[in-house]
Amino acid sequence: MKPTDEERREVAARLRVLASHREVDKEMFHDAIGVWSGGCIDGYDPVGVMHLADLVEPAPERTCMPIMPPYEPGVEEIPVCSECGRQMFLEDDDAYCPRCGAKVIEEES
């Protein structure tokens, strides 16, 4: 299971507390970031290393595409966001939906 933002905040808080010490003990550091040697003699347990990788990897960026609504006579055609469904009044240099903040990507071909 991927770590939550709350878990990331907890680990960051533990590291900040450790950084306030004059010297940081290896065992305290390993405990704070969730990496341990386990049964390994000269290295780290792969499960702990994978957990650390999951902690530092950011959540995927939300993306959207402008979608043209069905044609209605007399109604101006304005694209809507594929994520939030609201009208997108995009300028040429807009990279994010002005309504929900999702990154605007080109339609996949």
Shape: elongated
Low-pLDDT windows of residues: none
Rg for CA atoms = 23 Å
How widely separated are the two ends?
33 Å
Strand content: 5-15%
**Which sequence of SSEs, written as H and E, runs from N to C?**
HHHEEEE
Number of strand segments: 4
* Major β-sheet annotation: 2 strands, parallel
Structure description:
With 109 residues, the chain is mainly alpha-helical. It is 31% helix and 7% strand. The chain has three helices and four strands. It has helices spanning 5-19, 26-33, 46-56; strands at 63-64, 66-67, 80-81, 103-104. Strands 1-4 form a two-stranded parallel ribbon. Helix 1 runs antiparallel to helix 2. It is elongated, with a radius of gyration of 23 Å. The mean pLDDT is 83.
Ordered list of secondary-structure elements with their pairings:
Blueprint: H1 5-19, H2 26-33, H3 46-56, E1 63-64, E2 66-67, E3 80-81, E4 103-104
Parallel strand pairs: 1-4
Antiparallel strand pairs: 2-3
Helix pairs in contact: 1-2
